[in-house]
Design goal:
Layout (H helix, E strand, L loop, with lengths): L1 E5 L5 H15 L2 E4 L9 E6 L6 E6 L1 H11 L7 E5 L16 E4 L8 E2 L10 E2 H8 L5 H8 L1 E2 L1
Parallel strand pairs: 1-4, 4-5, 5-6
Antiparallel strand pairs: 1-3, 2-3, 6-9, 7-8
Length: 150
């Protein structure tokens, strides 16, 4: 599993809280891939990396689409989950034609909430809340139930 946070100036506390979130949802530990992370992109990898066949990227729409356009050939996982606004306009999705690509249902603006109101210590989307609530389902059912497959 690879989990990317594609936004500017992510604080260390948010990274640690997202690692806890990933453990709660997927029951897998992650580490920060410092070699591939920078101030605009945090890369978390599962241990072991092949345990869950999922590439999840969350971030602002333009940065996320740009990242996928530039790095789509590097994605090893078959399931790609994109949590960003305006995914129905992403040009990168067509490049991922050999993957199962999942995006938010509406493909437009996604809502972000103050995480503390929902028990999280980072701003959280509806999709992340649903993933957390339905975390006992297997991966394929979980993705099919919450997201739109492109």
């Amino acid at each position: 599993m690879t989990y990317l946070i594609c936004k500017n100036d992510v604080k260390k506390q948010e990274v640690e809280e997202r690692r806890k979130y990933i453990y709660d949802v997927f029951r897998i530990y992650t580490f920060v891939d410092t070699k591939n992370s920078n101030e605009n992109l945090i890369v978390l990898r599962s241990m072991p990396s092949t345990e869950i066949d999922l590439f999840l990227i969350i971030g602002h729409n333009k940065a996320t689409d740009n990242y996928l356009n530039e790095h789509y050939k590097e994605i090893r996982e078959n399931n790609v989950l994109i949590i960003a606004c305006y995914t129905k306009y992403f040009s990168s999705i067509s490049l991922l034609k050999n993957k199962k690509v999942y995006t938010p249902q509406n493909g437009e603006i996604i809502k972000t909430y103050f995480g503390e109101d929902y028990g999280f210590k980072f701003d959280v989307t509806d999709e992340e809340i649903l993933l957390y609530r339905k975390r006992k389902m297997n991966l394929e059912k979980l993705l099919d139930k919450i997201f739109r497959r492109n």
